[in-house]
Amino acid sequence: MSDQQQLLDILAQVGRALGNGHRLALLERLAQGEAPVETLATTAGLTVGNASQHLQQLRRAGLVTATRAGKQMIYRLTDERIITLMGLLREVAETNLAEMERLVGRLFADDDADGALEAVSREDLLAGLARGEVALLDVRPEDEFAAGHLPAAINIPLTQLEAMLDRLPRDREIVAYCRGPYCALSHEAVQRLRQLGYRVRRFEEGYPEWKAAGLPVV
C-alpha cells in the first residue's frame, strides 16, 4: 500500500467516526465544554456504556481526548477546529441534500409563521449588542453556561423559564441562543416567550460557532 493511500485511509477513519448521529450529538455537547461520560450520555440519550463506546471511536479518530478525575473520565474536544468541521458538514448537507432542507424547514416551521421575524444572524446580533438594543438569553443547562457563554448573557435553562421571567427585560429585544443551529432549546424558548408578549428571536448559530469565530466569550 502506498503512503498516499495510507494517508487517505487515516482520513477515512476520521470520516467513519463522524458517520453516526449519536457521535455527532456527543461532539455537539463537548463543543459547549468538557464533561464526564455520565453527562454526555444523558445529553445524547444514551446509556453510559453505549456513550463510552462511541467516545472511544471518537478518541481513536483523534477528535476527543480524556483525562481521569477520580473515578470519572472527563472528555473534551481535541481541537476547536472540530466545531468548524461540523459546521462545514452542516452547510454541505443543507446545500446538496433535499431531505436535509426539508427537515430543517420542518424543525423551524413556526419561527416566522407571520412573516415578520427570522433568526438573527451573527452580524445583526453584533450590531444590536453594540447599540445596546439586545439582551442575550442563554437557555442551556447551568453547567454548560458555566463552562463558557456570550458576554452579558442571562442564563435561564429552558426548564426554569416561566419561573424566572422577572430576569428578562421588557424594553429590549431578547435573542435566545443555545448549543448550535439545530438546538431545540432556543427554538422552544422563543415560542414560549412570544406567547407571553416578549419581543424575542433566535440566534441562528450557537455558543460553539460564536466562540469558533473568535468572538468574545466569558
Radius of gyration: 19 Å
Q: Percent of residues in beta strands?
A: 5-15%
Strand count: 7
Largest sheet: 4 strands, parallel
Mean pLDDT over all positions: 92
| Main sheet strand line-up | 5-4-6-7
The CATH architecture assignment of the largest domain turns out to be 3-Layer(aba) Sandwich
Structural domains: how many: 2
CATH first level of the largest domain: which class?
Alpha Beta
Counting helices, strands and paired strands, the structural category is alpha/beta
Percent of residues in helices: 40-55%
Write a structural description.
With 218 residues, the chain is α/β, with parallel strands linked by helices. The protein contains 10 helices and 7 strands. It folds into 2 domains: 3-79, Orthogonal Bundle (Arc Repressor Mutant, subunit A); 103-212, 3-Layer(aba) Sandwich (Oxidized Rhodanese, domain 1). The strands form 2 sheets. A 4-stranded parallel beta sheet has the order 5-4-6-7. Strands 1-3-2 form a 3-stranded antiparallel beta sheet. Helix 3 (37-44) packs across helix 4 (48-60) and helix 5 packs across helix 6 (98-107). The radius of gyration is 19 Å and the shape is globular.
Give the SSE layout.
Layout: H1 3-18, H2 21-30, E1 35-36, H3 37-44, H4 48-60, E2 64-69, E3 72-77, H5 81-96, H6 98-107, H7 122-130, E4 134-138, H8 142-147, E5 154-155, E6 173-177, H9 184-195, E7 200-202, H10 207-212
Parallel strand pairs: 4-5, 4-6, 6-7
Antiparallel strand pairs: 1-3, 2-3
Helix pairs in contact: 2-3, 3-4, 5-6
List descriptors.
globular, Oxidized Rhodanese, domain 1, alpha/beta, Arc Repressor Mutant, subunit A, 218 residues, three-stranded antiparallel sheet, 2 domains, four-stranded parallel sheet
